[in-house]
Amino acid sequence: MTDRITSVTATVTTPDGQVAGISAGEQLVFGRGEDADLTVPAGPGLSRRAGVIAAMDRGAWVANLSRTHALYIESEGARVRLPRLEEQGDPRGGWFVRTGSVLVGSRAMLDEGRPLRLTVLDHARPDAAEPDDADADWAAARPAGDSTVVPLSLDPMTKLFLVALLWCRPWLVEPSRGTPLPRTPEIARAALEVTDAFYELELFDRDPAFRDRLAARVGEHLKVLRHKITERGLVRPGVRLSDEVVVDALIEHAIITTADLAHLTDPAWCSRQEDLWWTERPGAGRSGRR
């Protein structure tokens, strides 16, 4: 708690109005347990030691401490689930705030409008003095120039994004997840449909060799997605990366969202994907979009 806001880097406001200040070089553990530095009035969806906020001269990191409960960040309308902070204190799965505010909490806290609010104060600007060694360990994982760091992002104007979107589409359309996920050949055929690749669609249905080549291309993209999921620590070590595990990670970390489905009916985006996938058409050259 503090009455001198100007002496701190960041403030944390609880749902019941408590305000805690964190100075550069300090950290604060929050949760619903009495052993947390900041006790949060929340239900069992929040762990007793849920997360940690570390302040520095240039902003603040927030990361998930819980082994059993999810912790989310909401910023500018996007919600991201944070991976668990590993025992060695590696913050690369966390969220960095340079300035401004984000909301933090369990899914229920965010849904019910009772989250924590983390605010990095204006005087914690990027032109402040260089961070000390303790801050450098936290800051090393964030790219310069970004106000926040998400675990993984995909450029919508890439083939990889289309593959990921088609892979996730059944669970985005049906959040109950009762629909089976598409396998590699099904994703490949869906890519043909999205890009209006009529010639290739006919070829896909009648030519096993072409179908196998296209499925292999899609399979390479799925391998890249699995690698990225593992590299960013978005699943626990040792977990088998089944289709369901990878798609769950893509959706839960807001790498692919329901809003992304709008791309599939956007003519400009579909045309760009057509250019990416079918710059050279076998046989009769490029077939126009019909």
Report on the structure:
Mean pLDDT is 79; it is low at 1-6, 87-92, 124-150 and 280-290. With 290 residues, the protein is α+β, with helices and mostly antiparallel strands. It is elongated and about 65 Å long. The protein is built from eight helices and eleven strands. It has a six-stranded antiparallel beta sheet with strand order 2-1-11-10-7-8. Strands 4-3-5-6-9 form a five-stranded mixed beta sheet, covered by helices on one side.
Helix/strand order, N-terminal first: EEEEEEEEEEHEHHHHHHH
Helix content class: 25-40%
CATH architecture designation of the largest domain: Sandwich
Structural class: alpha+beta
Q: Numbering strands along the chain, what is their spatial order in the largest sheet?
A: 2-1-11-10-7-8
Radius of gyration: 22 Å
Low-pLDDT runs of 5+ residues are 1-6, 87-92, 124-150, 280-290
What is the name of the CATH topology of the largest domain?
Tumour Suppressor Smad4
Q: Give the end-to-end Cα distance, rounded to a whole number of Å.
A: 64 Å
Number of domains: 2
Average predicted local confidence, pLDDT: 79
Estimate the strand proportion: 15-25%
Notable features of this structure?
290 residues, Tumour Suppressor Smad4, 8 helices, elongated, alpha+beta
